[in-house]
Each structure stands twice: as C-alpha cells, then as structure tokens.
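Structure, all two chains, one model.
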Amino acid sequence: MSNKMHIKLNVNGKDEEFLAEPRELLIYTLRERLNITGPHIGCETSHCAACNVTIDGKSVKACTMFAAQADGKSVTTIEGIGGPDDLHPLQTAFKEHHGLQCGYCTPGMITRAAKLLEENPNPTEEEIRFGMAGNLCRCTGYQNIVKSIQAAAVEMNAAKEAAE
Amino acid sequence: MIPAAFDYYRPKDMAGVLSILKEHGDDARVMAGGHSLIPMMKLRMADIPHLIDLQDVGGMSDITIGADNIRIGAMVTQSDIIDDAALAAAAPILREAALQIADPQVRYMGTVGGNVANGDPGNDMPGLMQCLDAAFTVVGPDGERDIQAREFYEAAYMTAREDEEVLTAVTIPTPKGGYAYEKQKRKIGDYATAAAAVQLVKDGGTCTAAAIAMTNLSDTPIYSKTAGAALVGTAVDDTAIKAAMAAMLDDIDPSEDNRGPVAFKKHVAGVILRRAIERAWSRA
C-alpha cells in the first residue's frame, strides 16, 4: 500500500516534480521537500493559518491539504508575493504599521490579506476582520494588522489609479 | 500530525468512483474539500485505506435555480454559495448560514455535499436542509435515489447513505416567507453551541407555515415538527414563541462537552430559537 505518486506543482512560478506518499501534507512538501519555509506550521489543525498559501485563486491552509490534491495546480506562498528587494505593499505596510511582533503568523496574514484585497480592494474595518478571521495572531491583538491592511489597500489603490 | 498511509485516487467520472467503492467497500471513502475528513485522518480518528478525491469527477459544481426548486451540486463550496447573487435572492437563508460556517479559508474548500453527507452533528447544513425540507440525491451501483434530509440522519456520522453510494446533489423547494439562521458559537470557526434554522410564512398577520430545525443539540440535527406547528395559526406573539421553544426543548437531547453543561445548552437553544423566530417573522 501507499505507492508513491508522481506529483507536479507550480510553486511561485516554478515547476516542481517529485515522488511523494499520498499522505504527505502540502505544508511539509513546501517546507521540507522544496525548502520554501515562509509558510509556517502553527497549530497544524486548520485553525491558525500560519500555513496559509494561495492555490488556484483560493486561500488554503496548507496543513489541511495533501500534496496529491494540489497536483497540477499553482501555489503561491509569501516568497511569491515579494522579497527583501521588492517588498509587496502589504509587506511594507506591516513593517511600517507594526503589523507583527514575533512574525510567526505574518506569512499567513499577508498571503491571506493579498487575496482579500484582490477580492475586495476597498474593505471596511469590519470586512477586514471578517475576511481575516481564519488567521490567528498571538501577539498584536490584531489592531495593527487591520491598520496595515487598510494602509496597503490605500497604497495599492493609489498605485493602480496612477497606472491608469 | 501525519495520517496513516493510504492509496489516493482521483477518478475522472462517477463510474470510476463507484467501481473503487465497490472494490474496497467501507475501506474506501470519497472526499470533496476534505476539511472534515483530513483533520480526522490526521488525528487518526478516521482510517481510510482508499481515499477517493472527487475534484475531477465534474458535474457537481452547479447551482440551478428552477421555478419551484433549487438544485445545488455536492461540490458547490460554502464560498460559492456566498458569492451567488441569484441564489441569495432565491434562498437567502443559505447565504446567511454559509457566512456563519468556519472561516474564509475553510469556506473556499468546504462543500455543501461534504457538509450534509458527513453526518457530524456540528455541521450547520444538515439542520438547515431539514428546515428547508431538502432531498439529497445519492448515486450507487443500482442508480440514483433521493433521500429526504428529514429522514437522512440516524446517529452521529451514521446516515441513510450506503457505503457504496455517493451524495451528488441537494434539491430544496424554493423557500417562501421570512428566514433566519441564528448560531451561537464561542468564536469564528467553532461549531455551534446551539443554532436554529427558521423559515416561516406570514399571511395577514398570521403565521401559515413554519419549519424549525436545530444544530448540534443532539447526535443528529433535529427537525422539530411540533415547534413549527406551535407557531402556525398564531400571530407569533410571546406565547406562541414560548410554546415553540418548549416544543423544541422536548425534541433536543444535548450532551455536556467543552461548550457547556446540558442545562446551559438548553438555555442557549431557547435564546437562539427565539432570536431566529423573531428575525424570520420580521422578514416575513
């Protein structure tokens, strides 16, 4: 039983192919097989979303999906959102507005917030809190996370208008 | 948390699914979004030697709004329900309930079919579907059959679906009148301490029809026929609401857990039902 499967993923624009047992959870594939360590393992029980990634346009907790389910799909992690030399407006906003303390939840917060702003570029505070309700932070009390997302939304909308 | 080893299948059609189910019997399970099943597999509370992923089967992701009824494919997600404006107009209680299920990430993955077929008393859609008098379509080796939601649930995780059958769609008669899905939970993402689905019809100040179902207050969802009947023919005043609450409390059988002792759950069930009735009536 448990024959290894041939799995193909596109992660942050790069094609990856490997053999894995069907029971391999996507978070382990990313962190331990592909050395993409932005997505974190927090609760590992689908509650905290430290492992949040985007798969085919959906925010997904990578601890609750088998790599086999993601076969053939595109995965975006925090590494695909922006890096030290080209920070995403959300990353800049989290830095400027103290949207993190220990930083453990931040990759999940930012990948989820990016999807939220894609779906709703002008969210109210209430919509941000509801849309981020699947992500837990044990440091900030969320106030500065909400502020960071609001600031990033303003920045992103201004950049979009300037480009038009 | 690593689940026990299993074989993974992703068949392209229902014939492929049914043949794997036939071959492996109750050693095989189908999976839609996996957000109930995978956590149980990780805890090793579910041992699934043969896991059948339904994502490539097709034909189960449509929402069809007909003249008299609404058909929702089993693979329609909670997020699809929330985003469908035509569905929200035809049956607003579905959107109201879906918004109270789990959290955004889980709603992208969690499906209507998985929610109703799983048989977990904590799931919200089973009680809702009993309130709406839905029928569940299942397909098996002998073809299709429909099972009424009010007849479907036998005990926790035990339903009228046979092991070799797959639930493919939910059909509800287009709801009429006022509605409410009211849920008390400790935090977003939690199952209900108590939840109530109410759909009722008002005609000239009198209630002419009412359906009431409760979530997570027994080992199955509870459709309380007597609670609904207590409202019919009344002006849904305080006396009628109290009668409905008393009838509902006779039908539920909550057990003590980390959401509280039995007396507390009964208290919350009453409060939640009152709120749901009052809100449904105000919208009727």
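Chain A has a mean pLDDT of 96.
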